[in-house]
Amino acid sequence: VAALVCGERLMAGAIGGPFPLEVRRVPPAPGSIPFLAAPRTYFLSARCALMAVAEAGKFRRVWLPSYLCPSLFEPFRRLEVRFYPVSARLAVADASWVREIEPHDLVIAIHYFGFELDSFPRALVAAAGARLVEDSSQALFRSQWTETYAAVFSPRKFIGLPDGGVITVSADGARTLAAPPPEWWLDALQVRMRRDADRFRSFQTVEATIPLGSYRASDLAVAMLENGTDYSLIRQTRRANYEILLSRLRDFAIFDSLPDDCVPLGFPVRVPAERRDAILNFLYANSVYAPVHWRIAEAVPARLRESHVLARSILTMIVDQRYGPEDMHRQAALFLEAACA
Ligand SMILES: Cc1ncc(COP(=O)(O)O)c(C=O)c1O
């Protein structure tokens, strides 16, 4: 829907949409982002990093959470997929599935929206002999991965980069990676530099055609991640924006407090499923491009009911570093107008 809006409105007071690439040099501030202090490999995307994990081990099966981005299936096409249940509050409340784990299974845990998945039965999964991969694609600022097999990040969800996925504990450090395919990459770069009406549509095309394989990140993405990003500003702004939305929209919040070390991806809210799309349309009509993380109807078996209910009820209000208090209050007011109509 956001694809239909005109570019002028996107620039004038719009909230949301793809991050633009802003090239500037920012002196690295050690400690401002934990992944930069870890041994790491830069892939073209988190999916490419996950595929490297899947192919490096002798895995037969992967356990995926019932609430997930459907793109997460792509790296595991060669493995048998099992699901474990995630509650409507995004917690792993039931650990009985762990009994079915076999040694050499791969298990993926997602740290949703930047929040630590404290409920995950980490010790039980380790005791069962599985390898745990922490999907921190939505939690770029996470710092706790030392005991895990691998942690994966997707900085494009926080910063305007054409490509990039990071893995902090490489399962296969010696693998040679190819440069991003140039045709795709130039399109991805161009999208991040555009301001015109079709920008969102082109962004969707680029994301839908992202190459999956043994590809590394571009030198531009690595340079930006290591020397061109003000992580302290991103941390502060997102947290301050989250607190404002929390003060206005607490009753709708999925996470109703902000832990000290959390840097949120967005502010997910739950609304009645039958009102959700009307609320989204109202927000779009007022230039607030709230995404839906995620639409899982086709991807996850219907028996995992709580996740389906959540997927029909959720939307994500925007807290990113492009916006300040005024934008947050405008967003909150629009949301309340729609949700309480
Ligand atoms: C939780 C999660 N993991 C992985 C991915 C894939 O990330 P990438 O686009 O970098 O491959 C996504 C993408 O949306 C995601 O939300």
Helix content: 25-40%
- What multimeric state do the chains show? single chain
Topology as a string of helices (H) and strands (E): HEEHEEEHEEEHHHHEHEHEH
**What ligands does this structure carry?**
pyridoxal-5'-phosphate
Most strands sheet: 7 strands, mixed
Q: Give the structural class.
A: alpha/beta
Adjacency order of strands in the biggest sheet: 2-8-7-6-5-3-4
Low-confidence segments? 1-11
Mean pLDDT: 92
Strands, count: 11
In terms of DSSP E residues, the strand content is 5-15%
Radius of gyration: 19 Å
The 3D shape can be described as globular
Q: Topology of this structure?
A:
Layout: H1 7-11, E1 15-16, E2 41-43, H2 46-56, E3 61-65, E4 80-84, E5 106-110, H3 122-127, E6 131-135, E7 150-153, E8 165-167, H4 182-193, H5 199-208, H6 219-227, H7 231-249, E9 267-270, H8 273-285, E10 288-289, H9 305-313, E11 314-317, H10 325-339
Parallel strand pairs: 1-10, 3-4, 3-5, 5-6, 6-7
Antiparallel strand pairs: 2-8, 7-8, 9-11
Helix pairs in contact: 4-5, 7-10, 8-9, 8-10
The protein binds pyridoxal-5'-phosphate.
Give a quick set of tags describing it.
single chain; 341 residues; alpha/beta; 7-stranded mixed beta sheet; 10 helices; 11 strands; 12% strand; disordered N terminus; binds pyridoxal-5'-phosphate
Describe the protein's architecture and organization.
The protein is α/β, with parallel strands linked by helices. 32% of the residues lie in helices and 12% in strands. It is built from 10 helices and 11 strands. The chain has helices at residues 7-11, 46-56, 122-127, 182-193, 199-208, 219-227, 231-249, 273-285, 305-313, 325-339; strands spanning 15-16, 41-43, 61-65, 80-84, 106-110, 131-135, 150-153, 165-167, 267-270, 288-289, 314-317. α3 (122-127) links the parallel β5 (106-110) and β6. The protein starts with 6 loop residues before the first helix and ends with a helix. The protein binds pyridoxal-5'-phosphate. Residues 45-47, 69, 71-72, 110, 135, 137-138, 154, 156, 165 line the site of pyridoxal-5'-phosphate.
